[in-house]
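EI: anyone free to look at a 271-residue chain?
SC: sure, send it
EI:
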Amino acid sequence: MAQTILITGASTGIGKATAMHFQAKGWNVVATMRTPENGAELEALDNVVVTRLDVTDPSSVASAVKLAHDTFGSIDVLLNNAGYGAYGPLESFDRDRIKRQFDTNVIGLLETTKSVLPHMRAAKSGTIINVSSIGGQITFPLGTLYHGTKFAVEGLSEALHYELEAVGIKVKIVQPGMIATDFAGRSFDFANDPAIEEYQEIIGKFMAMSANQALPPSKPEVVAEVIWTAVTDGTDTLRYRAGADAEMFLDNRKAADDATFIGGLKAQMGL
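SC: here you go
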């Protein structure tokens, strides 16, 4: 009997690539997104169901989970992929934009996980994959909100794995580096108030550094393959890196103390 994966944020990028990868491996796929009309390419594939799921709308989460069970009988893997990045000086964000970042990247992830847990617990099996980032272990300037959410994903995932291990459910974290997706487009929320002159120098230098990365971004398919490994390798490994830059940054961060790593980043930016 084919296994089933439910994916949030499957309309583009990592989510879409993962949906196609698992479908090609013979899995049932529930590809969820805020606007299902964007999922026509996936819906044309065998054993793929496209449905609406907005992680900030609990009723849509419950409906998608019910549809998955009604259609395929189980959810063997949940991929919490939906998310976006809010960057810019904290003073530039109003309360609504701050809440939206945490509601999407953290609260929505928890809500979706809670919705599938009763089914996995009854089956005494299942795997939850949470997409974090290198930004869940290291920080860059102007990422107060984004890094706050991804550090939260790392912490909640690590803690959750203890309680779920006792009922046969695995929790794993995937840490992509820069990926060639629309993260810098519709998935990027940048805020700046030019009237606050004190922040303009660091904004300019951060943008320049971001445009001149030494390593090219990886394709979404690279992350999809890492997610496949995390699901199928049969190990209790907690964290999986995705992309050459992820390996480089995380190795450098692990090897350096705070002053050395942060000082090196400041020097690179000319601060």
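EI: The two ends are 57 Å apart (CA to CA).
SC: 👍
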